[in-house]
Amino acid sequence: MNKLHVATVASLLALAAATAGAVTFDATNTASNTPGGQRFDQAVGVNYAKQVLSDASTFIWNTFNQRSPADRKPVDAITLVVEDIGGVAFTSANRIHLSTQYVGNYSGDVKTEVTGVLYHETTHVWQWDGQGKANGGLIEGIADYVRLKAGYAPSHWVKPGQGDRWDQGYDVTARFLDYCDSLKPGFVALLNAKMKGGYTDDFFAQILGKTVQQLWKDYKAKYGG
Ligand SMILES: *[C@@H]1O[C@H](CO)[C@@H](O)[C@H](O)[C@H]1NC(C)=O
Ligand SMILES: [Zn+2]
Description:
There is one protein chain. The protein has ten helices and four strands, in the order αβααβββααααααα. The longest helix is centred in the N-terminal third of the chain and has 18 residues, at 3-20. The protein is an alpha/beta fold and 225 residues long. The mean pLDDT is 93. Strands 1-2-4-3 form a four-stranded mixed β-sheet. Helix 5 crosses helix 6 and helix 8 (187-194) packs across helix 9. It has a domain at 1-126. It binds 2-acetamido-2-deoxy-beta-D-glucopyranose (NAG) and zinc ion. It holds the Pfam family BSP. Keywords: Signal. Residues 1-22 form the signal peptide. This is Secretory protein.
């Protein structure tokens, strides 16, 4: 194609993306020279990872009942950087960082594990955080709730009914949110929507008619706790 034609196609594509409110997904591995980076390239790969970012985003919009882009957080690009860091992964704004040290040391099906981690981290990109005031355990619980509903809960997670506090975070809170959603399907979507403007534990009572403490007692009682 000649240069003019390429430029025209590029600007048409950019226009189409802008009008559709499309989101772009990108992934790079900056640590392909490390054992974990090599394992990422062999077992997962940047193309698969990009597809997961896209699939996870669609799944999250459905889970949050955000049918149109106007309902969603205004994000136009999500980037995954696979890098030589400790820990597992973290998300800052619209950038997800995945640890090759974690990938290198993981024992088991690393592709499935990375997929689950990416569902969790992609949720952080899209979820509302109560203008920074939301309970941190709830934020992590919602991210793991999405991972659970997508079918990527690891076998080592707590079972339903386990845990000491509703806002313990991660799997404990995810299981509790799953219980709350069973009382009123769409609960998590309503909770996330309320978290756009601020945060109070009273959101649970506003949606379900019971305080979060009472819901936690009911939940524990259901499982004999
Ligand atoms: C395993 O984890 C340690 C500590 O983070 C790291 O130094 C090491 O490189 C990792 N091993 C692999 C194979 O990635
Ligand atoms: Zn998290």
